[in-house]
Amino acid sequence: MTTLKDVAKLANVDISTVSRALNNKGYVHPQTKKRIMNAVKELSYRPNLLVNGVKKGKRRNICVIIPSLFLSMFGELVQLIEEKARDYEYEIVIINTNDNPDVEELSLKKIRDSYADGLLLVSTGQNKRLIRDINLFDIPVVQIVRNQTDLLSSVDVNYFNCAHEGVYFLHKCGCDRIALINGIMEIRPFYDRYKGYSKACSELDIEDLSINNNYHNMNFFNNGYDKFIELIKKYENIDAILTANDLQAMGVLRAAKDCEYEIPDELKILSLTGYSMGDLLETRISSMEMPLEDIANKSLELLINKIKCKSDYTQVEHITFNTSLNIRETT
């Protein structure tokens, strides 16, 4: 596959010069631009996109990188992003990484050499340097849901407060053996949730009964099921469980019913990343609800402004929303 680097080498110019020429951004000497266009033609470098790019000066494509579409809030979030993007007359390209850093790296490198106007990203946190390079390479980046680096703009949620408030809610429900089934701590929302949970446990003088994952695992249903069994073997008299997301809560709910727990009388379950699915189950899951529509709207607004203004993409803005408690049948 021909890349910008190949075009730059044949035209004997820098990659940044090729980018400016193809995107009609910044001054490029006419003779230099002609040489670049000849190199593009000779190497057959994305000719159809090239024609559109040169004529319009834009492609109106936004890449959205997410961990998973399967039974997760990301599927709903992507739909909201796509609907909002149409209002701006943009189309989106969806990339699913399964939260695999290697897959993410490969996808990012393809985006770097593509004709994307911008990137919305739910990152694993393992490719920060590459992401910053893309942001400097004429493709603005906005992190969504996970603020993995403060050096790039982001739209996310206050996960610390989410878990902190969740513990206090369960404690007010009469629970004092409150466990947390979390995710991998290298991913910032999981880390922040644990800190909020730990802080609340300390303030209420109750035991920390948390279990974290030490590897990337997108099979949250099985993970919730297995971690529940691990919890009840490790700790006695657990009367409430916080989970990192709804799918994990579903696994806990299934395991609890298999173990003949009465929900919510003997065990209360609260998801810390709730979305519409929790309301569709036979036993509806209580949750700290994610403001997905707000995240979709604000992240697109932020990214489109960066694209249209052709501003310095190193300018950083962080937007943080709060979750809201939705009491259903598991508490």
Automatic annotation (TrEMBL):
Pfam entry (one): LacI
Domain named HTH lacI-type: residues: 2-56
Entry keyword annotation includes Repressor: yes
SUPFAM superfamilies: lambda repressor-like DNA-binding domains, Periplasmic binding protein-like I
Name of the protein this chain belongs to: LacI family DNA-binding transcriptional regulator
Molecular function GO labels: DNA-binding transcription factor activity; transcription cis-regulatory region binding
Keywords, comma-separated and alphabetical: DNA-binding, Repressor, Transcription, Transcription regulation
InterPro entries tied to this protein: HTH_LacI, LacI/GalR-like_sensor, Lambda_DNA-bd_dom_sf, Peripla_BP_I
